[in-house]
Design brief:
Layout lengths: L4 E5 L10 H9 L3 E5 L8 H13 L6 E6 L1 H12 L7 E5 L7 H7 L2 H7 L2 H8 L10 E7 L5 H5 L22 E5 L10 H13 L5
Parallel strand pairs: 1-2, 1-3, 3-4, 4-5, 5-6
Amino acid sequence: MSKDTIILVHGQWMTGAEMFLLKRRLRLAGFHVEQFKYRMVSKSLEYNCERLAHFIREQCGQATHLIGHSLGGVLSLQALQCYPDLPIDKVVCLGSPLVDSFAGRHFLRFASGRAILGKTLPQAVFENPLDSWSGLQTVGVIAGTRSLGLGSIITQLPRPNDGMVSLAETCLPGIDDHLEINVGHTGLVLSAAVARQCVSFIRQGKFTR
């Protein structure tokens, strides 16, 4: 019997290398794991959704799931909204600004910040935001509550937050489950507890409490 496939989708300004521990833990749990890489600064939301959809269709596992960190979670849901027939069963978003981004809005105030932020995040979060989730896929969100990240340095984020994304920004109406864990933004992909909860959600459709 073939293994379920999990596609990891990295966050803003990341490459996927930071997800190595999560990838290793998911493989030890029995999953086949692939990494989707994309350019969020120079490429548009539409371009990256199309590329992710193509990447998903290339997989041949028994079932395919997505785990997206930060912007990766937003991109995952945006792609599924654009291509509702994609063969995805479950999605886990880790610290994803699904309804807004206070830190992102701070960057947009400055020309240099807009250049650094790039195209995909503003289009996915501000210009074409997700109002709610009504897709076929089961969606779970894990939010960090330890204020440890770049956002907490450059601006005063609403509390609680993970140092980059506030808890309120992760609460998209219509999702199936939501869990808070006391880790920072990057810690969401390094934490063994988060990895265990990802496995629980993908296997059972809910987090363990």
